[in-house]
Amino acid sequence: MIFHSFIYVAISLFILRKISINVIMFRRKHKVSLGDKGHEDLERRIRAQGNFTEFIPLFLISLIGLEWICSTKEIPYYLIYIHLIGITFILGRLFHIKGMYDESIFFRRNGMRITFYSFLLNGLALIISIFY
Asked: Hey, which CATH number is domain 6-130, 1.20.120.550, 1.10.1760.20, 3.40.47.10, 1.10.10.10?
């Protein structure tokens, strides 16, 4: 059995690596080892990283659980949903990161909307798949 949801685990790891390196670079640029010392550009990157790490685990657990339940119960077309919601969620997180870095309320707001709708859809899909 191949779990396609682990593709999104891998993508999340690559994104987290990139934004973590970005925080490190800005810490070095401003010579700050702890906190942000009032540097707004560093603070935005720290919060983008923190926000990413706050939302990713629960979504990925729900995605893996959903794939496991659906594959066990042989629910048709579940892989289409897994990939659509996985891609959508990752795009939402990338929009949010861009919004945080560029101070773009459009990307930040829409990134959060996409994230919350992905959570809602995955929650509903989990409940439906449990009782399918």
From this structure: 1.20.120.550
